[in-house]
Amino acid sequence: MDVKSRNHLLLNRLALERDIKTSYVMDHMITDQVLTLQEEEKVKAQATQRDRAAMLINIILKKDNNSYISFYNALLHEGYKDLAALLHDGIPSITSYDRKDSTDGVAFCVRTILCEGGVPQRPVVFVTRPELVNEIRQKLYNLRNDPGWVTVYGMAGSGKSVLTAEALRDQSLLEECFPGGVHWISVGKQDNAGLLMKLHNLCSRLDLDFTYAQRPPLNIGEAKDRLRLLMLHKYPRSLLVLDDIWDSQTLKAFDNHCKVLITSRDRSVTDHVTGRKYEVHMESGLNDEKGLEILSLFVDMKIKDMPAQADKIVRECKGSPLVLSLIGALLRDFPNRWEYYLRQLQNKQFRRIKKSSSYDYEALDEAMSISVEMLNENFKDFYKDLSILPKDVKVPTKVFCILWDMEPEEVEDMQQEFVNKSLLFCDRNGKSFHYYLHDLQLDFLIEKNREQLQIVLRMFLGHDIDDILPVLL
Ligand SMILES: Nc1ncnc2c1ncn2[C@@H]1O[C@H](COP(=O)(O)OP(=O)(O)O)[C@@H](O)[C@H]1O
Ligand SMILES: [Mg+2]
């Protein structure tokens, strides 16, 4: 471990020993493969909380840079923001990270940097699209020495967010262009109040040692100034990723001479911001080969062994990765239903929901309807409740425990059913799970459940979900 990191641990040792509960912190570190189960046992064997914390720190002190950063991330994730702040300046620079690949082939340090920056993980079933990923990376290299904008644009559900995250899993790119890290913000469609909240949350996230956070900003102008100062003084060489931007007004709040990547359905959103601009067009659908690959990964068959209906399903879904994931998940559970699902997709007699103009995929409605219909009756209603989720927020298990009055384990088991069917997405860090819906899925649920929505909201005893979430998150 670097001397600097070691010193930070030693200097802040007392505060750390006093406050941390070791068990969740250790879960993160075990997931990161920097702590062994034997070491965990050794810590657990200590009599008091303080002794356990002291033992953990002793163990970390003998370890490498990766362990330091993993410990730091664990503190952040477990709500010890002020303790993490004490260690922040001791974080080793990216070039001195130990190069060691983790299980998924992504360098360890890349994984931790991206995790810290809130970059989503790969979906469980994932097909590579190397040309597009490389194109995004090449455009990002243009931001190495200068501020500017890279826009990844394309149809909803076409894979913009997934591929953008993938492009960032590249150690050289991070080292050369963004040594200050990456900060991912799910923006979505926002009114002024929502935008102000996003800016405020971003500033709090960046301002680890509370230099600027005297009080929440009063208006967007003030929030924008605060962000500008933070980026200039503390993160001059980092990348902001603004995922799913809807309008140029929102973007103006981030127009601060930074390095920014945005994803959007609208190519022209950057028309009114200043600086150099680069763009990448996300093809709307996968080619047949990649489409088939998604299905084959879901059903665990070789492409050549799949039945003839597979090609037709890919075409019927117009190659949409989102729709193919839904159908793939159904086929995994019911491997004999290729013909049935193909017919369902072709047969437009499905009870149609009113089209929201935000997307073009009839196939999505079909696929969602089939997937939801296939759920076990008990689960169907719970799934419909998810329509109260706010857009672009990853919601932790405990929110659902309150909503459904369930134990965390019950919630997680049920949510896993939805995740397995691609009806819900999950980011996992150590023992904590955060769930989110793709915005098209949310549109679908909201359209279907308009009347029911009020009833669910009442379950929160008259509170507005938007008021409750910030408290719980
Ligand atoms: N390369 C890929 N491999 C497998 N599935 C993918 C891939 N890209 C996207 N998907 C699936 O499609 C869904 C939508 O992708 P996403 O990137 O969120 O779309 P967008 O941001 O363009 O709306 C993902 O949640 C995932 O299930
Ligand atoms: Mg997206």
UniProtKB/TrEMBL annotation:
Transmembrane segments: none annotated. GO terms for biological process: apoptotic process; proteolysis; regulation of apoptotic process; system development. It holds the Pfam family NB-ARC. Signal peptide: none annotated. One of its GO terms (molecular function) is ADP binding. Keywords: Apoptosis, Calcium, Hydrolase, Protease, Repeat. InterPro entries: APAF1_CARD_dom (IPR037963), Apaf_helical (IPR042197), CARD (IPR001315), DEATH-like_dom_sf (IPR011029), NB-ARC (IPR002182), P-loop_NTPase (IPR027417), WH-like_DNA-bd_sf (IPR036388), WHD_APAF1 (IPR048975). GO terms for cellular component: cytosol. Residues 1-90 form the CARD domain. This is Apoptotic protease-activating factor 1 isoform X6. It comes from Alligator sinensis (Chinese alligator). The lineage of its organism: Eukaryota, Metazoa, Chordata, Craniata, Vertebrata.
